[in-house]
Design brief:
The complex is a heterodimer of chains A (109) and B (116).
Chain A lengths: L2 E3 L4 E5 L4 E3 L2 E3 L5 E7 L6 E5 L10 E5 L4 E6 L8 E8 L6 E3 L3 E6 L1
Parallel strand pairs in A: 2-11
Antiparallel strand pairs in A: 1-4, 3-8, 5-6, 5-9, 7-8, 9-10, 9-11
Chain B lengths: L4 E3 L2 E4 L5 E6 L6 E7 L6 E7 L2 E4 L8 E4 L6 E5 L8 E8 L10 E2 L3 E5 L1
Parallel strand pairs in B: 2-11
Antiparallel strand pairs in B: 1-3, 3-8, 4-5, 4-9, 5-6, 7-8, 9-10, 9-11
Classes of the chains: A mainly beta (109), B mainly beta (116).
């Protein structure tokens, strides 16, 4: 069965410090992985997707098939990065998108 | 572009009452999702539409929940009768389907339901 886990419910880092939000998944094939973000009082929105190999707002994420992980990283956290972050998975082209439980990131000034 | 539009934003009802949520997806988006998000948790899929066809409704509690997407555009999600445990945020999302960059979901603002 497809499953996404995010072990940290809350993560606090100081401004300028590196940040890593963990995501692990269960899926037997080659899934599509995404990170979605929800800033305060805003709607849920796509941050980045592994297939694009993109860097958005300084964030990157690498898919590690051996460890079934897709951790989100940023070398220097900013206050505006404080938000809820959700890792998401789509199994095949015809599959649904499922979400992890989310990690609340708080960047301390 | 207004994006995905949902209404109402908030709804308070007593248990055993019916309730309906409405979603207008982005123009041209064939795929529409309904998710339920409980406090402190991630969105959980209820149903997914491709045009007017429900292609995945395995997690929709069919004894009390129903959904429709007439003409493959707007969609309505209904609960009848509502129970206390249905209190949650109901999210609608749409996408244009699979692209070379993968599927990108656009979310509405959600409807926050409180069942008293």
């Amino acid at each position: 069965a497809q499953r996404v886990t995010q072990p940290e419910k809350l993560l606090s880092v100081f401004k300028g410090a590196p940040v890593e939000l963990k995501c692990n998944y269960s899926y037997s094939g080659s899934p599509e992985l995404f990170w979605y973000v929800q800033y305060s009082r805003q709607r849920l929105q796509l941050l980045l997707r592994h297939i694009s190999r993109e860097s958005i707002k300084g964030f990157t994420a690498d898919l590690n098939k051996g460890e079934t992980s897709f951790h989100l990283k940023k070398p220097f956290a900013q206050e505006e990065d404080s938000a809820m972050y959700y890792c998401a998975l789509k199994g095949t082209s015809y599959d649904k998108v499922i979400f992890g439980p989310g990690t609340s990131l708080s960047v301390i000034p | 572009e207004a994006g995905v539009v949902q209404s109402p934003r908030y709804k308070i009802i007593e248990k055993k009452q019916p309730v309906a949520f409405w979603c207008n997806p982005i123009s041209g988006h064939n795929t529409l999702y309904w998710y339920r998000q409980n406090l402190g948790q991630g969105p959980e899929l209820l149903i997914r539409y491709e045009n007017e066809e429900a292609v995945d409704d395995s997690q929709l509690p069919k004894d009390r929940f129903s959904a429709e997407r007439l003409k493959g555009v707007d969609s309505t999600l209904k609960i009848q009768p509502a129970e206390l445990g249905d209190s949650a945020v109901y999210l609608c999302a749409s996408s244009s389907g699979l692209t070379l960059s993968g599927e990108k979901l656009f979310f509405g603002s959600g409807t926050q339901l409180s069942v008293l």
